[in-house]
Amino acid sequence: MKAAVEEMSPKNLKRLQRLLSKSSEERSPKNKLGSKWRELHGSNNWAGLLDPLDEDLRRELVRYGEFVQASYHAFHSDPEGSPRDVALPDGSYKVTKSLYATSSVRLPKWIDDVAPDLRWMTKQTSWVGYVAVCDDPKEIRRMGRREIVIALRGTATLLEWSENFRPNLVSMPEPKPDPSDPTRPKVECGFNSLYTTGSQHAPSLADSLVAEISRLVDLYAGEELSISVTGHSLGAAIALLAADDIAERVPHAPPVSVFSFGGPRVGNREFADRLDSKGVKVLRVVNSQDVVTKVPGIFADNDKNKQGQNRNNGGIREMVERNNPWAYSHVGAELRVDMKMSPYLKPNADVACCHDLEAYLHLVDGFLASNCPFRTNAKRSLRKLLDEQRSNVKVLYTGKSLRLNRGTVLDYGDVLPSPSS
Q1: Which stretches make up the Fungal lipase-type domain (predicted)?
Q2: How much is the pTM?
Q3: Would residue 233 show up in a list of annotated catalytic residues for this protein?
Q4: Catalytic pick from 21, 193, 233, 329?
Q5: Can you point out the beta strands (E) in 207-280?
Q6: Which of 258, 351, 334 is nearest to 50 (CA)?
């Protein structure tokens, strides 16, 4: 452990300079995934791939995170309208559809009059992400299939924040619903509202997404396909609803997997069981210090052994959970990273840093195993992390970075190729 800390210390100036340099282009090779892609997409629930973290899975996770970063950058380039261009991190993909979410929350008109320059913050319908498809024959051969990616950003507008604070569970639509049945699948009211609400000017996110995925599945009929839904924060929550909807409503849907970062809880235990029964695979990347992953509601432990113990004890706890409108359950498998393992970030980093997507990708890139230090051959650039989280980076490194790259560190658009490149 001491040797690893020494290796990652400020004394290693050459390595630090490489991680901060815009001219260095150290890239990890892209392995052929043809025989392994189903396993990487959760066919065995990522058994044996998470701790220690499989090298190919690490590269895939960073790649999905960069698709989400592209959605953030595109939105902030034109928050009032629709981005003209989405700068995808992988040139093998093309955007086929822009996605919009509509809030059911209504704010008084005087808010727009008070702050007209921030009108985009109160827009009823906002751009939240995109659908992209791989159209490079060489990359399709390398991956073993043609991949459809759905990338969703996190909370950005005032109305989206309002929806986040509607934590009561609501029943999902079913063919023959029984409102009195406490075992029905339920999801957070605000997330469901953003996903299912439409307007006069735009269909709901649910309808537009299902229509586009159905079109692409028909277009590429006969090919090996996969659907990867990825998102951060609010986008991670909506990703689960989208995956459930696609598996339910898209005819002949290919395998659907969700790769989420810093996602909150979304539904009850029955919702988790519903996703599992449809074959939807979910991998949640969670930072131990990220409070967003611990909300909303009361966490209902869905460990089957503990459930059995509860039943043996009269099932009182289970009855309370099933009838509690705040009883949430996490979904799928979990990759847990820890801010304290990074040699660069302060162990007491603030709440925003613990939830920051770039911080997540930094931690994933350096993760080896839960009982190992940050990997010494991590390749992701530190430039963007310094730009966005300078106050949360250890002072030794911020000072060293200024001396090594004075005048270049604050170049926001220049980031080294990540392990996915």
Answers
A1: 149-298
A2: 0.86
A3: yes
A4: 233
A5: 225-232, 256-261
A6: 334
